[in-house]
Amino acid sequence: MKRWLAVMFAAALGAALAAPATAETVKEKVKTGVQKTKDAVDRVEDKIEDKAKDVKDRMLGRKTEGPEDHRGTAKNQKVMTAQQALKDKGHDPGTIDGHMGPRTRAALADYQKAEGLKQTGRLDDETRAKLGM
Question: Do 84 and 123 lie in a common domain?
């Protein structure tokens, strides 16, 4: 019985390892990885921008509070506006939070497809114009 289980396990493992990875699967994984990297870069850029504003304000004596006062950068406001417009047009971007996450990108891609635009999942000029922004 143990030998039979060992043979069956080895056969199943061999079949799983021998299954070729399709080009589409690899392409999707790469695309997802690239998108995650772009999202991370956007978050870092927002943090740097917020910190730079905070330092400038402190140096000029405009404020003595911390960086928590810099919510809603211009970029985040544009994303929030786009998220609300997408939601109003029936494409759910998830939480209206000003962050360009995977759900917002998916909603953008769906909207672009529905409107006959190039499906990039990014908030480009053509998409902004169609959204009325």
Answer: yes
What would you report as the CA-atom Rg of the chain, rounded to the nearest whole angstrom? 23
Position 13 in a domain: no
In a shared domain, residues 66 and 81: no
Q: Tell whether pTM > 0.70.
A: no
82 with 131: CB under 8 angstroms?
A: yes
Quick one: 59 and 98 in the same domain?
Answer: no
| Residue 6 belongs to some domain of the structure | no
Residue 112 lies in a domain: yes
d(CA 8, CA 16): 12
DSSP string, 15-82: HHHHSPPPHHHHHHHHHHHHHHHHHHHHHHHHHHHHHHHHHHHHHTTS--S-GGG--S-HHHHHHHHH
Please write the tens of the pLDDT for every residue from 22-62: 767 778 888 888 888 888 888 888 888 888 888 887 777 77
